[in-house]
Amino acid sequence: MLFPEPLQQGVLIQRYKRFLADIRLENGEILTAHCPNTGSMKNCLQPGAPAWFSISPGLKRKYPATWEIATTPHGHLAGINTSRSNRLVREALEAGLIPTLRAYDDLRHEVVYGSEGSRIDFLLQIKNQPVYVEVKNVTLAEADDGNGFFPDAVSTRGSRHLRELAAMVRAGHRAVLVYCVQHTGIERVAAASHIDPAYASAFYDAVEAGVEVVALGASISPTEIVLDRVLPVVIG
Fold it and tell me: Residue 130: is the preceding peptide bond cis (ω within 30°)?
């Protein structure tokens, strides 16, 4: 995913009110940017560290800047704009990065499904059979040891999506959970049982039911973010 223009750089001052972040520019100006992330952003908030943002001058909104990339306490880059995840995964699907999902005949997005009123990120058709694909953005690393976790805060929505995926498998369909790992220091992914035990339980139930789990790692720069490798998923 190429950014329309290379991202601009500043220094993070703080994130506040959940969806705002103050960034200091090189000339000393303080810019307030939209923070497109509903999670806790644990270990992605490093005051004084480089932060990159995009500008959308054509949009009629109060804050035309959008915070895109953070620097972690261990010096890694993290793509914190969760609205980018689906596009990144779609590009990975189109590039054939996920071997088990290469030969799809059709792709739709945001399709309503399940008994709990969810929307699936992607509904593929492979040999006239539906495949339900749910995407989650991963940016949490607790230490500089390659381990990544999801979620970074309690996520009842995440647990609901796992239940829906498991139900699709039990109904005879395929379902795939894709972790979009926008963190250059993460080399494997696990359910964050230390943060959300209910999510971890739903994750293990879904895997036992037959939900497939894939993690994709990203290369991140101020000009481009691309999913370019498959990462191991830790189960059990």
Answer: no
Q: Decide: 224 and 215 in contact? Cβ < 8 Å.
A: no
pTM of whole model > 0.90? yes
DSSP H helices, the chain, are 85-94, 156-170, 197-209
Work out whether the CA dihedral 150, 155, 156, 157 comes out positive or negative.
Answer: negative
State both tokens at 174: 């395929």
Domain annotation for the chain: domains and CATH numbers: 8-79 (2.40.50.580), 82-234 (3.40.1350.60)
CA angle 231, 1, 86 (to 5 degrees): 65
Other CB atoms within 10 Å distance of the CB of residue 52? 24
In tens digits, the chain (236 residues) has pLDDT values of 999 999 999 999 999 999 999 999 999 999 999 999 999 999 999 999 999 999 987 767 789 999 999 999 999 999 999 999 999 999 999 999 999 998 899 999 999 998 988 999 999 999 889 999 999 999 999 999 999 999 999 999 999 999 999 999 999 999 999 999 999 999 999 999 999 999 999 999 999 999 999 999 999 999 999 999 999 999 97
Which 3-state string (H, E, C) describes 40-94? CCCCCCCCCCEEEEEECCCCCCCCCEEEEEEECCCCCEEECCHHHHHHHHHHHHH
Q: Name the residue among 87, 58, 81, 75 with its Cα closest to residue 178.
A: 87
Q: Which of 119, 95, 9 is nearest to 53 (CA)?
A: 9
Tell me the C-alpha distance between 216 and 231, whole Å: 6
